[in-house]
Amino acid sequence: MDGSDSTRAGLILSEEVFRIRGAIFEVNREMGAGFLEAVYQECLAAEFELRGIPYVATPTLTLTYKGHALRQVYQPDFVCFDSIIVELKALTDVASAHRAQVLNYLKATNLRLGLLVNFGAFPKASIERIAR
Questions:
Q1: What are phi and psi of 69, to 5 degrees?
Q2: CA 44/CA 56 separation, integer angstroms
Q3: How far is CA 49 from CA 8, 15, 56, 57, 131, in A?
């Protein structure tokens, strides 16, 4: 987890993650728990805009198999700073399948860092940093 400046210094994309986390916690403070994922996604997009955080919402990620493009695609909730996948959930608990989903997104994009965000955690959103 991101902590003090000295802790953040050793983590990849630490300043970008710090800014994203601030937006996530602001949405959590305003909305609380109990809404559907789509509500949090819309709120977070608005907060990214307010904070000047560059993002693409639900980008389509093309998959390949042995060099052949597949018809199936992945769509993470956000890609921020052209380098961080942000996947949202609104669940009581995050499962290992959700972590695997983020890892698959990272593999599909060749990106190195993903954030698995759960707005269903009470009393505040949880954020898992997943690196590849």
A1: -70, 135
A2: 12
A3: 24, 17, 11, 12, 25
pLDDT at 1: 41
d(CA 107, CA 6): 29
pTM equals: 0.88
CA atoms within 13 A on the CB side of 9: 4
Tokens 């060749």 correspond to what residue? Answer: 110
- What's the farthest any 2 CA atoms get from each other in the chain? 46
Q: How far apart are CA 34 and CA 40, in angstroms?
A: 10
What span, in angstroms and rounded, lies between the C-alpha atoms of 7 and 121? Answer: 24
Grouping H, G, I as helix, E, B as strand and the rest as coil, residue 22 is helix
Helix, strand, coil: what percent of the chain each, to 5?
Answer: 40, 25, 35
